[in-house]
Amino acid sequence: MRKRLMLPIAIIAVSGTGPAIALDLPARKAGLWEITMTMEGRNIPMPTAQHCIDAETDKLMSSIGGEMRKDVCSKQDVQQVGNTYVVDSVCKIGSGTTTSHAVVSGDFNSAYTVKVTSKREGGPPMPGMPADGSSSMSIDAKWLGACAADQKPGDMIISGRKINIRDLQNMMPAMPGGAKK
């Protein structure tokens, strides 16, 4: 079964790279995932995140990613090439436009990798980003096993802080099922 997968909004916000990466990909295996982001050419340390998921919370992350993508991206082409997914997108974030190319590979049971190159044009300069607006990012995710005893599905642990995707959903009106204004 194919579905969308979204890297949680919190980790994308930390990266400052522009659009959230919401793709048509296989579902991730339930349990605890460790996600590491690496930005080439930027002096901004990227935190490692842990996500405790089950099928329901992975699907919830998917619906949030789909809403964000629909609102900001004029183009989101996804092509499957063998076991690899190639995504080309154009998204308007604030007063800037980001054009991205992503290559996703892995089995979503034990590990997957996302390699993204992007170019941002327009808008104010982004802190820590090269002057020409280009960036390259790698996201490496690996399945660690069952979630810890103090974790519940939907928990995201970033820089020692834990938030559940359901709580995040209730704080943000634009999210599917989120709080209304």
Main sheet specs: 9 strands, antiparallel
Number of strands: 11
- Series of H and E elements: EHEEEHEEEEEEEH
Structural class: alpha+beta
Instruction: Please report the number of helical segments.
Output: 3
The rough form would be described as globular
Distance between the termini: 34 Å
Question: Which stretches of 5+ consecutive residues score pLDDT under 50?
Answer: 1-22, 174-181
Strand order of the largest sheet: 5-6-7-8-9-3-4-10-11
Q: In total, how many domains does the architecture comprise?
A: 1
Radius of gyration: 16 Å
Q: Per DSSP, what share of the residues sits in E-state strands of 2 or more residues?
A: over 45%
Can you describe this structure?
The protein is of the alpha+beta class. Helices cover 18% and strands 48% of the residues. It has one domain (2-170). It is built from 3 helices and 11 strands, in the order E-H-E-E-E-H-E-E-E-E-E-E-E-H. It has a 9-stranded antiparallel beta sheet with strand order 5-6-7-8-9-3-4-10-11.
Secondary-structure blueprint:
Elements: E1 2-6, H1 9-15, E2 22-26, E3 31-40, E4 49-53, H2 55-72, E5 73-81, E6 84-93, E7 96-106, E8 111-121, E9 134-145, E10 155-158, E11 161-164, H3 165-171
Antiparallel strand pairs: 1-2, 3-4, 3-9, 4-10, 5-6, 6-7, 7-8, 8-9, 10-11
In short:
This protein is an alpha+beta fold. The chain is about 20% helix and about 50% strand.
Question: Which features does this protein show?
Answer:
48% strand; alpha+beta; nine-stranded antiparallel beta sheet; 181 residues; two-stranded antiparallel ribbon; disordered C terminus
